[in-house]
Specification:
Length: about 400
């Protein structure tokens, strides 16, 4: 029997997606220790928001998994916010300052109403960066060569309110339609990735051609009730899911704040709801379906279109908000000033608005720590990873070498 088709689901979360790269580096390390050096372990890849960009970059090098991971590590280990959005003072004045001015005085000054800013930040640099990281023509060629079966990215339409999955596949997979979401077969390009990663309010909406018309799309994590679904529709029989937030809080009293929440805290809480909450619910739903299918008699299971899907989920063991609070000082002065204007204040683990910062902190000091955490979390799940992929356990020497790499991001 051939190996089951393995899917990879990379979720959204802005700068938090650096954690995904650490997890993938850990997977690559465990894979090499198991003596496997060829092939693509993820023939089906689905991504949302920043996860969509990582997914497309991975698909661009689907013929060499280790090289693909090395490229991703190199990018995320040397990140600067200027690669994603304008962080210079003129750029901030044209976007964030005008946005705040419109928010506070737009009702009073008619001139501001005629020059409505489209977003809090200008992510024009991201389009240039995508040309370096992603090659749509190469993705298509690798699919024809058999290195990749399918790639999917998701975005949310501001016009229709529907959640749309854009996908490219080798097999003749027909588009699917579900409640409040549907799929469109298309060649994945930079505009799809920009749309999928357009965090609401923070980055501008992106126009995409769909069904003969133009609609404006924003971040695919919005209204994403079933983030695992695209990988299943595209043929995945077992799925590795990388989350962007800690699934379970440790026992004991939780830290809180008795002060009224400011704009940054409300925005961070809203983004966490958009990016994190639906994934846990979807994994739990899939596990319930698996349990139900196990209870069905053989004749009944043969009459259903449902099939069991093995899922391995790896998520941060630490609060990424706290990690972001330690590195807020690495942001350019103009960005720090803009964030202070919406209520971000403090240092370390006591930063107010740290959740918002955690999505925007595309700086190497933070992204390197995220990758180190993802790498160490994955090595801690070594046995689960080996069982999931049905790989042989590595030798103790290989395991010790892998453990020594924790904290050493490049390479």
């Amino acid at each position: 029997m051939s190996d089951p088709i393995t899917g990879l689901v990379l979720t959204g979360g802005g700068a938090r997606a650096g954690y995904q790269v650490g997890v993938l580096k850990g997977i690559a390390r465990i894979r090499r220790d198991a003596g496997i050096v060829a092939g693509n372990p993820f023939p089906v890849i689905a991504g949302t928001s920043a996860g969509a960009i990582n997914a497309a970059a991975l698909a661009t090098r689907a013929d060499d998994f280790d090289a693909a991971i090395a490229d991703l590590v190199e990018v995320w280990a040397n990140f600067e916010v200027g690669q994603i959005y304008r962080a210079d003072l003129p750029g901030i004045i044209r976007t964030g300052a005008r946005w705040l001015g419109m928010l506070m005085f737009g009702w009073l000054i008619p001139a501001l109403q005629r020059r409505r800013p489209q977003s809090f930040l200008d992510n024009a640099p991201l389009r240039s960066s995508l040309r370096e990281w992603v090659d749509p023509a190469r993705i298509h060629a690798l699919m024809q060569q058999g290195c990749l079966r399918a790639l999917a990215v998701t975005a949310s339409s501001y016009g229709s309110g529907l959640h749309v999955t854009f996908y490219e596949a080798v097999d003749d997979i027909q588009p699917w339609t579900r409640s409040q979401r549907f799929a469109v077969r298309d060649e994945i390009g930079p505009d799809h990735l920009l749309a999928s990663a357009a965090i609401p309010f923070v980055f501008p909406a992106v126009p995409l051609h769909i069904e003969g018309r133009i609609e404006y799309f924003g971040d695919g994590s919005m209204r994403q009730s079933a983030p695992i679904s695209p990988a299943i529709h595209l043929g995945a029989e077992r799925i590795l899911v990388v989350g962007g937030g800690r699934i379970r809080e440790p026992p004991g009293p939780r830290a809180g704040c008795s002060e009224y929440p400011n704009l940054a805290q409300v925005a961070g809480h809203a983004l966490s709801n958009i990016f994190l909450d639906s994934l846990t619910a979807d994994v739990e739903r899939l596990q319930r379906i698996n349990t139900t299918l196990e209870l069905l008699p053989i004749d009944a299971s043969g009459r259903t279109t449902l099939r069991p899907i093995e899922v391995l989920m790896i998520s941060p063991s630490e609060r990424l908000d706290d990690l972001a609070g330690k590195h807020i000082g690495s942001l350019p002065f103009a960005i720090r000033s803009l964030l202070r204007a919406v209520g971000v204040s403090g240092r370390g683990e006591s930063v107010r608005g740290a959740a918002l910062v955690s999505y925007l902190l595309f700086e190497a000091a933070y992204t390197r720590e995220l990758m180190n955490l993802g790498f160490s979390d994955t090595l801690a799940r070594r046995d689960d990873v080996l069982r999931f992929f049905d790989w042989q356990r590595s030798s103790p020497a290989g395991e010790n070498q892998a453990q020594s790499e924790v904290g050493k991001v490049p390479g």
